[in-house]
Backbone:
């Protein structure tokens, strides 16, 4: 079984912000595969189903971004998963322009507090991840204001297309492996 976690913040006021792009991708994936992400388990909203014939658990941590590892590690432990083989995390990346995806099988947190939390709780850098570009902050703008801000109408159109590609990339990881997804979508 795959645990697919989209990162974000749970309150309604964060809906549509750059930092919640992981939640948006997860919602689109759930819609695409008719999976209801409504159960509360290990401080996350979760839904079970199948993607490309593989059993999956979709999760949206309710711990807020900076403590995502608490929920993710609890789910990994509860379901006795191997993070290297079974975990895929989707999250925002300000180092990438809007429309860009970066898929990796491991790596550092790169300054992302949600990923720092997951790495600290799991004790490993080795888990698949899909980074979704949300664009760098404009000069003079506070980083927190940027990631908790919303996309311009022009960028919103681009990000909707990127969400579709992120879902395609995730399906490719499941069917053909992370290397193929990297070659196809990076």
Residues:
């Amino acid at each position: 079984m795959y645990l697919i976690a989209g990162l974000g913040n749970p309150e309604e006021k964060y809906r549509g912000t750059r930092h919640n792009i992981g939640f948006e991708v997860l919602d689109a994936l759930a819609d695409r595969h008719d999976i209801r992400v409504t159960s509360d388990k290990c401080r996350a909203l979760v839904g079970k189903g199948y993607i490309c014939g593989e059993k999956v658990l979709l999760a949206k941590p309710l711990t807020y971004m900076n403590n995502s590892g608490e929920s993710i590690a609890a789910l990994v432990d509860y379901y006795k998963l191997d993070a290297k083989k079974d975990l895929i995390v989707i999250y925002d990346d300000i180092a990438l322009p809007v429309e860009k995806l970066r898929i990796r099988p491991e790596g550092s947190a790169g300054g992302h507090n949600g990923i720092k939390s997951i790495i600290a709780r799991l004790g490993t850098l080795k888990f698949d991840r899909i980074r979704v570009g949300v664009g760098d902050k404009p000069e003079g703008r506070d980083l927190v204001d940027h990631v908790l801000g919303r996309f311009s109408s022009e960028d919103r159109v681009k990000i909707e297309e990127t969400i579709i590609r992120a879902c395609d990339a995730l399906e490719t990881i499941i069917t053909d492996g992370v290397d193929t997804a990297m070659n196809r979508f990076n």
Remarks:
- The chain has a mean pLDDT of 96.
